[in-house]
């Protein structure tokens, strides 16, 4: 299992050669997991093959009555799709699976041209080999993704992640968690040593609010 707010299911999976799925928001309950910001909290399976991903998705998905991230679109447990069976039916059917590669994802700022070429070539090679049709799809808003993500989350992320503030959409916080907020020097030194990104989050919220 992984938690994904900005790629932390998909990227680690790609680094170690396994599969990772970031599901539709609210499909899998986030109950009991340390959240980042409720509006961008996702959890999903990681496995050695796609069949196992599908099996895990069927087991994990469905409304649990506890997680307010879920919505009326979240299926009840008895209505969750048998994803492994659905995957098998697609493979066995004569219908052609369509796979879209977002063209802006290959040219966004900071993207290596070499990496973009490897990703594009691998998608066409491997998906085509199993009978899928691969094509590039343009979604212009994709280039605004980092800005939208920052505006939607960074102005209150530190208070939620480090400060222990209960998010507006939740009714409870994590048990047995008593952070010192504002952070004192000891917390700052600890974060700086083990995870400097947390310090960046704290400063980011402070500057954005000011």
If you had to describe this structure to a student in words, what would you say it looks like?
- With 210 residues, the chain is mainly alpha-helical.
- The chain has 8 helices and 6 strands, in the order E-H-E-E-E-H-H-E-H-E-H-H-H-H.
- A two-stranded antiparallel sheet has the order 1-3. The chain has a two-stranded antiparallel ribbon with strand order 2-4. The chain has a two-stranded parallel ribbon with strand order 5-6.
- It is globular.
- The model has no long low-confidence stretch (mean pLDDT 86).
Q: Can you give keywords for this protein?
A:
210 residues, two-stranded antiparallel ribbon, mainly alpha, globular
In a few lines, what is going on in this structure?
This protein is mainly alpha-helical. The protein is 40% helix and 10% strand.
CA distance, first residue to last residue: 37 Å
How is the biggest beta sheet arranged? 2 strands, antiparallel
Low-confidence stretches: none
N-to-C series of helices and strands: EHEEEHHEHEHHHH
Number of strands: 6
Helix content: 25-40%
> What would you report as the Rg, rounded to the nearest angstrom?
20 Å
Number of helices: 8
Instruction: Give the amount of beta strand, in percent.
Output: 5-15%
Structural class: mainly alpha
Mean pLDDT: 86
Shape: globular
Q: Describe the strand arrangement of the main beta sheet, using strand numbers.
A: 1-3
Please describe the topology of this protein:
Elements: E1 2-4, H1 10-16, E2 19-20, E3 42-44, E4 46-47, H2 50-60, H3 83-92, E5 98-102, H4 113-129, E6 133-137, H5 145-153, H6 157-161, H7 185-194, H8 196-209
Helix pairs in contact: 2-3, 7-8
């Amino acid at each position: 299992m992984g938690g994904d707010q900005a790629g932390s299911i998909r990227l680690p999976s790609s680094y170690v050669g396994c599969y990772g799925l970031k599901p539709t928001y609210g499909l899998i309950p986030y109950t009991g997991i340390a959240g980042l910001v409720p509006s961008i909290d996702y959890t999903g399976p990681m496995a050695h093959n796609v069949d196992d991903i599908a099996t895990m998705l069927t087991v994990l998905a469905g409304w649990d009555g506890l997680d307010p991230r879920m919505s009326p679109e979240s299926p009840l447990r008895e209505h969750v799709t048998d994803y492994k069976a659905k995957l098998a039916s697609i493979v066995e059917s004569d219908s052609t699976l369509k796979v879209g590669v977002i063209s802006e994802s290959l040219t966004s700022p900071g993207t290596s041209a070499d990496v973009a070429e490897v990703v594009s070539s691998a998608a066409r090679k491997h998906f085509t080999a199993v009978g899928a049709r691969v094509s590039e799809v343009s979604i212009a808003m994709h280039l605004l993704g980092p800005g939208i993500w920052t505006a939607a989350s960074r102005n209150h992320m530190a208070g939620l992640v480090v400060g222990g503030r209960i998010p507006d959409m939740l009714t409870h916080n994590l048990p047995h968690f008593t952070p010192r907020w504002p952070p004192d020097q000891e917390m700052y030194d600890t974060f700086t040593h083990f995870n400097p990104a947390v310090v960046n989050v704290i400063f980011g919220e402070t500057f954005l609010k000011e």
